[in-house]
Amino acid sequence: MDTEAERAAFFKLHSDLPREGPGVAEDVGWAADLIDLPRHAEIADAACGPGGDIAALLAAAPEGHVTALDLHAGFVAQARARWGGDDRVTTLKADMTRIKNRHDLIWCAGAVYFIGIETALRGWREALKPGGAVAFSEVCWFTDTPCERPRAFWKSYPAMTDRAGIDARIHAAGYEIIGQRQLADAAWEAYFGPLDARIAALRPGADAALAAVLDEAEEEAACWRNHRDEWGYLLSVVRPA
């Protein structure tokens, strides 16, 4: 997003969506079970978007607290509208690289690519309680020979790698891997379904900037639906070694 018009078009598309990336409650539950998350856990939802994972995080720690943070004021406003009446949730307009206090779990759905796995994990080490863990999803190649279409789509993200590459970055940051799994189709459709409807609603009368953003979003969905065996998200649960 190089221009103000492009940024405005992006956030117009993404306004009022239930979530900003693939995911379902089962992903959170799986990660929580893996680390035996306490019922009273302190959790940071880093780059929380509109708060799509907060309900699942609270279900995993019903006596705990979720601090949800995002840099985009619009997403923060959405999350506050949804959870402002629950004293188990604090929503902040804040940088995910500057998580304060200590947490049993730092959850980050699809956002570490903004800063890189190693930078994120090294920066979050001091925000973890003893025994605390990080769960993050990152786009990942599932084949050594992806087709031209996904390669072209992800050309703008040269840091994209495979599972071995993600593992190497986790270890380089000084963490051990507790568990990993590929996000299921339901997680992707939970994101793409509402996005499809939003694209259809905005398409009539869209100006050039908005049309370009809609085209890119449509291509991402089509690229995944046609090549889901070649790429997707890998959810990793890790802990300082």
UniProtKB/TrEMBL annotation:
Key words, A-Z: Methyltransferase, Transferase
Methyltransferase domain mapped to chain residues: 43-132
Classification via Pfam families: Methyltransf_25 (PF13649)
Single GO molecular function: methyltransferase activity
Record's signal peptide: none
Source species, domain of life: Bacteria
Protein name as annotated: Class I SAM-dependent methyltransferase
UniProt record, GO biological process: methylation
Organism: Sulfitobacter albidus
